[in-house]
Amino acid sequence: MEAHPKFVWFDGAVVPWEQANVHVSTATVLRGANVFEGVRAYWNGDERELFIFRNDEHMARLRNSAKIMRMAVPWTKDELTRAQVEVLRANAFEGTVWFRLSLYVGEGEDHIWPPEQVPVGGFILPRLAPHLPRITEGVDTCISTWTRIADTSVPPRVKAGANYHNSRLAVMEARTNGYAGQPILLNERGKVSEGPGACFCMIRDGALITPPVTANILESITRATVLELARDALKLKVEEREIDRTELYVADEGFFCGSGWEITPVKSVDRYPVGTGQPGPLTRRLQEVYFSVVEGRVPQYRPWLLPVYGEAKAAKAPKAAKAPTGASTR
To answer: What is the Cα–Cα distance from 156 to 2, expressed in whole angstroms?
Structure first.
């Protein structure tokens, strides 16, 4: 497998990897001023089709992030959707893909006003992303000493690159302390928030329980999907409420969920085994349902999927969205 894709969508066109360059003077380089979406496209080998999962929801969240950050979005939803399809087709992926759709602040933020007039560029960076062993084996985790960012400081509702400095600190600490997986962060009230790159859910007494969106979590699309499938497909009781740290030690099951982490079982927290210390049966059932849905094997949920290659496999890809005047910051 190549370390990077052959093609990247950058500022309005699909270009070779080597040509996707951002200048060092941009605000995204200097201050991490960007918003993004991490999206999965799932491969269905029987249909030989690649399905982008819940594109509409990702586009809506990207717009909300840009709105809060006072960033003008120079492309429409349809243009960005076509761009995603085009770059995936250009790379001719035949396997599950994770890609990052980013909007970044260019040069001039220090002297241009209003902020909506600051140039904004964009890129789509895809890579093959097959299931990792942790999906089957589960992970051991811990409570981080770092506190999750709050809505009153750096709002986690905004999916911004700069927010992930908080995540990196927590991950580096956990790995230094011998944990291979990501940790769990508490919020300023001492309640469970989420992992650095995924939301957290636990099973207690047959109910699926997860922190509310007011617990300093990202408004996760995967989390919303898992809650819906748990209610409708598995008929589980679902609770969105605050969770104490010690509840994790006596939970029956636990798992992380997110576009990157998918549904990853948690085996232990702070060396306390969760349940039997192995991936639990309800977590396994959720995984089975989830992967069937995202791969297009459940007709009821096909509206969540956007096919990349389409019925006419040899059809020409849609034209790339053109970069608005002044949007490029190369």
So the answer is: 32
Query: 104-116 as b/e, with b when 16 or more CB fall inside 10 Å?
Result: bbbbbbeeeeeee
Q: Name the helix (H) or strand (E) containing 228.
A: helix 221-232
One-letter amino acid at 72 equals: A
Structural tokens at position 173: 């600490």
Split at pLDDT 50, 70, 90, the class of 2 is: low
- Is the pLDDT at 107 greater than 90? The verdict is yes
Distances (CA, A) of 293 to 6, 88, 169, 237: 29, 21, 34, 20
Beta-carbon contacts of residue 98 (< 8 Å; ≥ 6 apart): 38, 39, 40, 41, 126, 127, 129, 259, 260
What DSSP designation does 116 have?
G
Q: 83, 13 in Cβ contact below 8 A?
A: no
Which residues share a beta bridge with 263?
Answer: 257
Length of the chain: 330
| Residue 77 falls in the annotated catalytic set | no
The single residue of 77, 159, 267, 322 carrying the catalytic annotation is 159
Beta carbons of 185 and 239 less than 8 angstroms apart = no
Edge-to-edge strand ranges of the sheet holding 184-186: 143-147, 184-186, 192-194
Is 80 exceeded by the pLDDT of residue 330?
A: no
The DSSP output letter for 193 is E
| CA-angle at 302, arms to 298 and 303, nearest 5° | 150
Closest by CA to 12, choosing from 103, 135, 108, 118, is 103
Please, are residues 120 and 90 in contact by the beta-carbon 8 Å criterion? no
